[in-house]
Design a protein that fits this description.
The complex is a heterodimer of chains A (114) and B (108).
Chain A: E1 4-7, E2 10-13, E3 19-25, E4 31-38, E5 42-49, E6 56-57, E7 65-67, E8 73-78, E9 87-94, E10 104-105, E11 109-113
Parallel strand pairs in A: 2-11
Antiparallel strand pairs in A: 1-3, 3-8, 4-5, 4-9, 5-6, 7-8, 9-10, 9-11
Chain B: E1 4-5, E2 10-14, E3 19-25, E4 32-38, E5 45-51, E6 56-59, E7 62-67, E8 72-77, E9 86-92, E10 97-98, E11 102-107
Parallel strand pairs in B: 2-11
Antiparallel strand pairs in B: 1-3, 3-8, 4-5, 4-9, 6-7, 7-8, 9-10, 9-11
The chains are: A mainly beta (114), B mainly beta (108).
Chain lengths: 114, 108
C-alpha cells in the first residue's frame, strides 16, 4: 500500500496562475482532508470530504476549491494564486467508525507563489 | 478562533529525561484527542490518542493525560530519545482542529 500520496511535491507559481494539487489514497477511506501548514499556525483545515461526491468547507476555505469525483482522489484547486497561499499543503484521509479517528497524512506539497 | 492551543512553540530536554508537551482546548464538547508527530519534509504521523471518557492512555514510552475540568491534555515521553526530536501536534478529533505544534529537541 502506498498510503496517501500527493502530486506534485514542489511547485512555484506566479500570482494569478492556477493549479491543482492531487491527493490519492489506496486505503478505501471515506474521509479526506486538505490542510495548509504555516509557521506558528499549525495545520489549518481548508476543505474536507466525507465521501465520494461530497465536499465541505473547513477553517480557511477562501481561494480554494475541491472536488471528490472518485473515492480515492481529492483534488485541491487554486483558481488565481496569491502570495498568501504560499504554504505547505497536506492531504489526509481516515476511515469511518467511532474509534477510528486517526488520520493518515501524505508527504506534503510545498507551494510558493511569487 | 483557536480552539486547540499549544502555547509552547519549543521544548528542549536531555536524553533520558521526561518530555512534557501541553495542549489546551476551549470546546468542552470535544470527545477525542490525538497527538501527531512530524519530522521535517514529511507528513504528520499518528502517535497516540485518548477518549474523553478516560483520563490516561499509555503506549510504551508515550502517555497522554486528559484533564477535562481544566480542558487540558499533556503528552509525556519517558525516557526521551534523540529520535523523538520532531514537531508534535495535538488535535481534537471532532472537527480535526490542530494546535500550532511544539518543536521538541532531545539532546544527547
Amino acid at each position: 500500500n502506498a498510503g496517501v500520496t500527493q502530486t506534485p511535491k514542489f511547485r512555484v507559481l506566479k500570482t494569478g496562475q492556477s493549479m491543482t494539487l492531487l491527493c490519492a489514497q489506496d486505503m478505501n477511506h471515506e474521509y479526506m482532508y486538505w490542510y495548509r501548514q504555516d509557521p506558528g499556525m499549525g495545520l489549518r483545515l481548508i476543505h474536507y470530504s466525507v465521501g465520494e461526491g461530497t465536499t465541505a468547507k473547513g477553517e480557511v476555505p477562501d481561494g480554494y476549491n475541491v472536488s471528490r469525483l472518485k473515492k480515492q482522489n481529492f483534488l485541491l484547486g487554486l483558481e488565481s494564486a496569491a502570495p498568501s497561499q504560499t504554504s505547505v499543503y497536506f492531504c489526509a484521509s481516515r476511515n469511518l467508525g467511532p474509534d477510528l479517528n486517526e488520520q493518515f497524512f501524505g508527504p506534503g506539497t510545498r507551494l510558493t507563489v511569487l | 478562533d483557536q480552539q486547540v492551543k499549544q502555547n509552547s512553540p519549543s521544548l528542549s530536554v536531555q536524553e533520558g529525561r521526561i518530555s512534557i508537551l501541553n495542549c489546551d482546548y476551549t470546546n468542552s464538547m470535544f470527545d477525542y484527542f490525538l497527538w501527531y508527530k512530524k519530522y521535517p519534509a514529511e507528513g504528520p504521523t499518528f502517535l497516540i490518542s485518548i477518549s474523553s471518557i478516560k483520563d490516561k492512555n499509555e503506549d510504551g514510552r508515550f502517555t497522554v493525560f486528559l484533564n477535562k475540568s481544566a480542558k487540558h491534555l499533556s503528552l509525556h515521553i519517558v525516557p526521551s530519545q534523540p529520535g523523538d526530536s520532531a514537531v508534535y501536534f495535538c488535535a481534537a478529533s471532532d472537527d480535526m482542529r490542530f494546535g500550532a505544534g511544539t518543536r521538541l529537541t532531545v539532546k544527547p
